[in-house]
Amino acid sequence: MPISERNGVKIWRVRDRKAQFLRWAAWMVGVMAFILAAKTISDKTEWFYVYTASDAANDILSRAFPPKWSYINQLWRPIWDTFNIATLGTIFALLIAAPVAF
Predict the structure, then answer these.
(1) How far is CA 68 from CA 8, 56, 58, 62, 71, in A?
(2) In the chain, N or C: fewer CB atoms in 10 Å?
(3) CB 30: neighbour CB atoms within 10 A?
């Protein structure tokens, strides 16, 4: 039911049949679109990868932790390069975005 205010007092009005039907039809179209999208996504999903995702995550985490600190000396240069690339990318993004923002 739509609510309107008149002189600060809320007034409830019953919708007419056409407005009620259009509202119901819009909800049905939305629900059908959601179901169609879910079915399409489900049909295109490779469920094997979904079922084995926990195994892959466990494998990655078991190899990442605990870290091998003896290897850190070989990583300083790539870490520094990554930091520089991120900094330059941020600066360029600011230079491009600043004129557009104002």
Answers:
(1) 69, 20, 17, 12, 6
(2) C
(3) 10
Whole-angstrom Cα distance, residue 13 to residue 20? 12
pLDDT tens digit string along 1-47? 567 777 778 777 777 889 889 999 999 999 999 999 999 998 888 88
Polymer length in residues for the chain: 102
pLDDT 10s digits, 58-97? 999 998 888 888 888 999 999 999 999 999 999 999 999 9
Amino acid at 61: L
- Structural contact between residues 11 and 4, judged by C-beta atoms closer than 8 angstroms: yes
- Verdict on whether the full-model pTM lies above 0.70: no
